[in-house]
Specification:
There is one protein chain. The protein is an all-alpha fold. 80% of the residues lie in helices and 0% in strands. The protein has one domain. Helix 3 (63-70) packs across helix 8, helix 5 (102-124) packs across helix 7 and helix 6 (130-150) packs antiparallel against helix 12. It is globular. The two termini are 20 Å apart.
Length: 300
């Protein structure tokens, strides 16, 4: 069953909802690793994701798809591109949470769907409706307001938006299903991840098995909190309408926002409120266009 069936399923809600729930609470997990350098955490996210994704692909009986993609030059090049983008995204995210900039990560993931619409217009010539143009302009105004307040670009938000937006765009070109594609990406990232882990071990600064069971458990568990939501989302998205996913995707950055303000106690003054207000207005407009389009399609 796919989203082209124009209706949602309970399984779709459960799978996608589980993914967004994990992503929403991920800052709490990464905050517990704030004392570990981001460039040490990311290799563990890769290395411990590999056996999980591999087990799922083997259970699905789709290892052949993974191997064919791994031995096809074009697929390999595209997977290398997406793997590079997602690893940069992970690194910025982990660093930002540890540095007390969770609000900027929430903003980045709020902006992301609008950036994806902008990318589609620029790169593949999709026509933007007037409401979509208004939504993108409002998002740009929000970024400008935050830039004026901080005296510089909110680079964390922009970097997360750009890396994830291009990741999603190029991911569509991989000739494998999302789960096999994720396994292909972490396979390609494993050699540099092992090299980084070896570097920390050689210099005596590794936190794995050396600084207590809590650090070890959190680093190993980072594979679970990385691989599981991505695979849950891949399954759930196929069982939900695009308009439903469009609404659900805001749950994760909303949870990150609430955690940043009420748990991490990050500064949230009037200018930030105004900027987020612009973003929320833009997202309401954008979501309305998707819901309206879905209704028109269902009526035909």
């Amino acid at each position: 069953m796919s989203r082209t069936d124009h209706h949602d399923t309970r399984e779709g809600f459960l799978f996608a909802g589980g993914a967004y729930f994990i992503w929403g609470f991920l800052p709490l997990y990464m905050k517990a690793l704030a004392h570990v350098p981001a460039w040490e955490v990311v290799p563990h996210r890769i290395l411990w994701s590999l056996p999980i994704a591999g087990a799922v692909v083997w259970w699905q009986g789709r290892a052949g798809d993974w191997f064919r993609a791994l031995t096809t030059p074009r697929s390999l090049a595209m997977a290398l591109t997406t793997a590079t983008l997602i690893s940069i995204n992970w690194g910025i995210y982990v660093w930002a949470i540890g540095a007390g900039r969770a609000l900027e990560t929430a903003l980045g993931y709020y902006i992301n769907p609008l950036f994806s619409v902008f990318l589609a217009a620029v790169l593949i010539g999709e026509r933007l409706s007037r409401p979509q143009i208004v939504a993108i302009v409002l998002a740009a105004l929000a970024v400008a307001l935050l830039t004026w307040e901080a005296g510089g670009l909110p680079w964390v938000s922009i970097a997360l938006t750009v890396t994830w937006g291009f990741y999603a765009y190029f991911k569509r070109t991989l000739p494998v299903e999302p789960v096999q594609g994720f396994l292909l990406e972490v396979t390609l990232l494993t050699p540099p991840a092992l090299a980084l882990y070896g570097w920390f071990e050689a210099h005596g600064t590794s936190h794995l098995f050396h600084t207590g069971w809590t650090d070890t458990a959190l680093l190993i568990g980072s594979g679970l909190v990385t691989a599981v939501p991505l695979m849950l989302y891949a399954v759930g998205a196929k069982r939900l309408r695009l308009s439903t996913i469009a609404v659900m995707q805001y749950s994760a950055p909303t949870m990150i926002f609430l955690i940043a303000v009420f748990v991490f106690d990050e500064a949230f003054g009037p200018l930030k409120l105004a900027a987020f207000g612009l973003i929320w207005t833009a997202l309401v407009i954008y979501t309305w266009t998707l819901v309206a389009a879905a209704r028109r399609t269902a009526e035909t």
